[in-house]
Design brief:
Blueprint (H helix, E strand, L loop, with lengths): L7 H7 L4 E2 L9 E2 L1 H10 L5 E4 L2 E4 L10 E2 L3 E2 L2 E2 L8 H5 L2 E5 L5 E6 L10 H10 L2 H11 L5 E2 L4 E3 L2
Parallel strand pairs: 8-10
Antiparallel strand pairs: 1-5, 2-4, 3-4, 6-7, 8-9, 9-11
The structure holds iron/sulfur cluster (2 copies).
The site of one iron/sulfur cluster has 11 residues, from loops.
């Protein structure tokens, strides 16, 4: 979905995604029922917790540098097919977030080195021209559990 702006080579060198520490464990993807079913098929022992009216992966309490790897992460990357991959992961480093005024916005993570060379205008242009902004806002309407509170380290784009 983001191949035009994010190269696999950059991601292979970065490898920040799919492992979480105590400060970003809230970034674990939210799983709608169809994704939950795909995860259960792939990893039947996976534990989940509620996230709004959907679910996310259950994780242990973390401290310091401890990392929790997503239960479907494999040595070759995500174990889910591109069709089954959670929407949150498909659109990363973009995130659906709740602005303090209550509106839903699309923000970009400042942690992702892969898009750091792009200006906010270029990212906005990509989101709108590729139809991704419309897709995100439509998804947010039907899946409000995916809208996270606005956090430090994110810049609002749209
Ligand atoms: S943080 Fe960005 S560059 Fe790094 S692996 Fe994730 S998507 Fe790729
Ligand atoms: S579902 Fe796949 S892409 Fe998403 S965090 Fe887990 S391993 Fe990474």
């Amino acid at each position: 979905m983001l191949k035009k702006i994010l190269s696999p080579e950059t991601c292979a060198q970065c490898r920040l995604c799919c492992q979480f520490d105590a400060t970003d464990i809230w970034e674990l993807p939210v799983l709608p029922p169809e994704t939950l079913a795909a995860v259960q098929k792939l990893r039947p022992d996976t534990a989940f917790i509620s996230s709004g009216d959907e679910h996310t992966f259950a994780s242990p309490a973390l401290s310091g540098e401890e990392l929790f790897a997503c239960p479907v992460l494999t040595e070759c990357g995500c174990g889910l097919s591109s069709a089954d991959k959670p929407f949150d992961c498909k659109i990363w480093p973009f995130r659906l977030m709740r602005h303090t005024d209550g509106s839903c916005v699309i923000a970009v993570s400042e942690l992702c080195k892969g898009v750091a060379h792009l200006s906010d205008d270029a990212l906005r242009q990509f989101l709108t021209e590729e139809g991704l902004a419309d897709l995100c806002f439509a998804y947010a309407r039907s899946h409000p559990a995916h809208i996270k509170p606005l956090m430090d380290g994110y810049r609002i784009l749209l």
